[in-house]
Backbone:
């Protein structure tokens, strides 16, 4: 493995960029899916007040 980094020194930066991109996509998908689970929490306060 050390020989690989000696031969291609920029490989570690590419690997780090791929891990960071994967983590970013995971966080965005995870947080976006949380909003779909509770649609009632997204109501505006005026809508709730009119129903009472």
Residues:
């Amino acid at each position: 493995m050390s020989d690989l980094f000696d031969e291609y020194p920029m490989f570690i930066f590419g690997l780090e960029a791929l891990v960071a991109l994967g983590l970013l996509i995971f966080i965005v998908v995870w947080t976006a899916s949380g909003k779909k689970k509770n649609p009632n929490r997204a109501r505006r306060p005026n809508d709730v007040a009119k129903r009472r």
